[in-house]
Amino acid sequence: MVRKTVEFIGKYDYGIDPIEISKKYGIPLSAIVNLKSNENPFPPPESLIESVVRALDSIPRYPDPNYTLLKEKISEYVKLPPDHIAVGNGATEIIQSISNIFLEPFDKVVIPVPTYTLYFFYSMLRDASIETIKMKEEENFTPKSEEIINSCKGAKLLFLCSPNNPTGSVIEEKELCSIIESIDTPVIVDEAYSEFYGRSIVSKVKKY
Q: Is there a domain that residue 66 lies in?
C-alpha cells in the first residue's frame, strides 16, 4: 500500500543524537558540542531571549497567516519587496514546497553532487527523475556552468547550493547569471550560508 518510492527512499538519517553519545560513552551532555545539523553551539543573544519572553503572551493566538511583519523585516534586510518573499519553517519546508509546486512524476531535476541531501529527498517524494552532475575535488567541487546548462535540457528544476553544503564551494555571480540566462529551467539557489561568504545574488531576483 505504501508507494514504492517511499519504500526506496527509506528513513532520513539525522546523525547520532547527543543523548545517544552520552549514554554510549558515559560523557555528560554538557560536555558534548552538537554540530551534526549545522546548529549554532552558542546561546542566543540576550536581546533575542527577551523578545521571545515578551512574545509568550501571544501564544494562545494563531499567528498572522500572511506573516506581514516578518516579511516586512526580511524585506528591509534583503532589499526586496515583501511580495517577493515566502516564509517557511526553515529551509526544509521551503525546499519541500518548491518540489510540491513544480514537480510532477518523472519530471527531470538536475542536482550537482555532493550537496544537501534534502534536494534528493523531496524530489524523489514527487517521483521525479534526478540527474546528477558530479563535482570534482581537483576543481574545488565547483560545478561548471557549461555542464549544468547542457544537463538542464528538458529539466523542470535545478538545485544549486552556494556556498555549498557540505563542501563550502561557491558559484560566482557571473557564472550563476550565465546559467540562469542560458536555460528555461527554474533555478533554485540555496544561499543558507551566504552570510559566511559575505555575498549574495538576492539583488538579481527582480531581474530574473
A: no
One domain for residues 19 and 98: no
Alpha-carbon Rg for the chain in angstroms: 20
| Residue 31 CB-density burial (10 A; 0-12 exposed, 13-18 middle, 19+ buried) | exposed
Q: Is 11 helix (H, G, I), strand (E, B) or coil?
A: coil
Asked whether residue 168 is assigned to any structural domain, the reply reads yes
Helix (H) or strand (E) holding 46: helix 46-55
**What is the model's pTM?**
0.88
CA distance linking residue 130 with residue 151, whole number of Å? 11
Tell me: pLDDT of 53 over 90.
Answer: yes
Q: Is residue 14 included in any domain, yes or no?
A: yes
Task: Please tell me whether residues 53 and 109 are part of one structural domain.
Answer: no
What does the block give as the cell for 163?
556556498
C-alpha cell of residue 171: 558559484
Burial of 18 (0-12, 13-18, 19+ CB in 10 A): middle
Residue whose C-alpha is closest to residue 158's, from 84, 99, 97, 101: 99
**Which domain, by its residues, includes 33?**
1-61
Count of structural domains, the chain: 2
Do the domain assignments include residue 125? yes
Q: β-pairing, 108-113 with 187-190?
A: unpaired
- What are the pLDDT digits (tens) for 64-111? 999 999 999 999 999 999 999 999 999 999 999 999 999 999 999 999
